[in-house]
Write a structure and sequence with these properties.
alpha/beta; eleven-stranded mixed beta sheet; eight-stranded parallel beta barrel; 22 strands; about 25% helix; about 30% strand
């Protein structure tokens, strides 16, 4: 599929996705209360981040690593780094500098392969493409060892991987290695269990197509060998974010969104407004509708990414930071009125004895929104806002009265509210870990302050 056609389809899908919003009546009633039920716990959050790819676009600089993984002023607070498993082990050292610094800043690191070593690959005829690539059937065990070798190499060089994936986008592999659902299932059943030292992730479908992950969930042995179900959301409609079969079969497993750019990858689009607000809206839906535990962007530094090529944070990045800086690894999402007004979207999280509320106003007028804390209380609320003219701007403290507070949500804005919990519903990360049987990250940095149809086909300079 050529790039021009891809972008045309992207624009078409973007218009179709926006159509329901454009048709929404404007004469709506006043906003309903946004109820935050601190006792109704949802998924544990692992973190937010993106990929560093030194082979394709160059490594992050030392200063850019601080911007990405630090959590002070003018930093993104990312807590997840994705790296790639180069098929040539002679290039593995290129991943170390950024991965080591990310871990030092409290992030977790996972890795995804695009191709096995060339000695393990064969070409085959796939729908007329005689140069399509796949892993040779007699090399499955050797490929598992290749992944093991990468985990061991990284560990021996100071990077303890949290997880390693079996394959990046096996169902959109025009420029890398194809896997059918049956081939992925076979590998997960027969070989994935031999991968040691990191959690095993599969299948990273490019569009969260369930036909490639359903067989794993329905096979007890394959499921036992999968620790994290990874998915990409290129062109995935919000209505397809939910995964009932995972809820049914995936107890004890994690669910991560491991790659996306949204709503496009246009050059120098990172600061477009209100387009950048779509990112926080997309993240809201990933958390609330998809129950994802991690949200991972494509390139951390790119002309359309959270960090621009000059190393400064973009409007898209500030929208991500409304989640990443405040919702730390180990926090848990709690139930909230997700759509209290036509264009208002709310999600809420708790951890480290505080509540974090992210409120998005996609409308063209300001909204006066009342937030009600249920099964918990606070005395004051701090807040930060990003809109057309401000980036994570600190606002005046708001007093809480009778477990409620009212705030103005500016037109086309995202606001994050943070409050220390008081009373009997204070919760610690240890409480969350015990209840959900999760592992806590090594450190916790305190806070100081559907639409693309195709995945990123690299190394095309989009």
């Amino acid at each position: 599929m050529n790039l021009k056609f891809k972008k045309s389809v992207n624009i078409l899908l973007a218009c179709l996705t926006a159509l329901p919003l454009m048709l929404t009546p404007t004469n709506v009633s006043a906003a309903s209360d946004a109820n935050i039920n601190l006792s109704s716990q949802k998924q544990v959050i692992r973190g937010f981040g993106g990929i560093n790819h030194p082979v394709w676009i160059g490594d992050l600089t030392a200063a850019q690593r601080e911007t990405a993984f630090g959590n002070d002023q003018n930093q993104l607070g990312f807590s997840v780094l994705r790296i790639w498993v180069d098929p040539d082990r002679n290039n593995w050292s290129r991943e170390l500098a950024t991965a080591k610094r990310a871990i030092e800043k409290g992030a977790i690191v996972f890795a995804s392969p695009w191709n096995p070593p060339s000695s393990m690959v064969e070409t085959f005829n796939r729908n007329g493409d005689t140069n399509a690539k796949r892993l040779r059937y007699d090399k499955y065990a050797a490929y598992a060892q290749h992944l093991n070798d990468f985990v061991t190499y990284m560990k021996n060089n100071g990077v303890n991987l949290y997880s390693i994936s079996v394959q990046n986008e096996p169902d959109y592999a025009h420029d890398w290695t194809w896997w059918t659902p049956q081939e992925i299932l076979r590998f997960m059943k027969e070989n994935a269990g031999s991968i040691q030292g990191a959690k095993v992730m599969a299948p990273e479908s490019f569009q969260y197509l369930k036909n490639i992950s359903d067989p794993i969930l329905n096979d007890p042995q394959a499921l036992a060998n999968m620790d994290i179900l990874g998915a990409h959301l290129y062109g995935t409609q919000f209505s397809n974010f939910a995964y009932p079969l995972f809820k049914q079969k995936g107890a004890g497993k994690e669910l991560w969104m491991t790659e996306v750019y949204y709503p496009n990858s246009d050059n120098n689009s990172a600061d477009r407004w209100p387009e950048a607000l779509d990112i926080s809206y997309h993240m809201h839906n990933a958390m609330v509708e998809g129950d994802f535990q991690a949200y991972v962007w494509w390139y951390i530094r790119r002309s359309y990414g959270p960090m621009k090529e000059d190393g400064t944070i973009s409007k898209r990045g500030y929208n991500m930071a409304h989640f990443s800086k405040f919702i730390r690894p180990g926090y848990v999402r709690v139930d909230a009125s997700k759509n209290p007004d036509t264009n208002t979207f709310v999600s809420a999280y708790k951890g480290n004895n505080r509540v974090v509320i992210v409120a998005i106003n996609r409308g063209t007028s300001a909204v006066s929104q009342k937030f009600v804390l249920q099964n918990g209380n606070a005395s004051t609320v701090s807040s930060w806002v990003t809109d057309a003219n401000r980036n994570l701007a600190s606002q005046s403290a708001i007093n809480v009265s009778n477990r409620a507070f009212t705030a103005q949500l500016p037109a086309r804005s995202v606001t994050t509210f943070v409050a220390n919990l008081t009373g009997t519903n204070r919760i610690s990360e240890e409480d969350i870990a015990s209840e959900f049987e999760i592992e806590l990250p090594l450190t916790d940095m305190e806070t100081n302050v559907d639409t693309d149809v195709t995945p990123a086909v690299e190394p095309v300079n989009q």
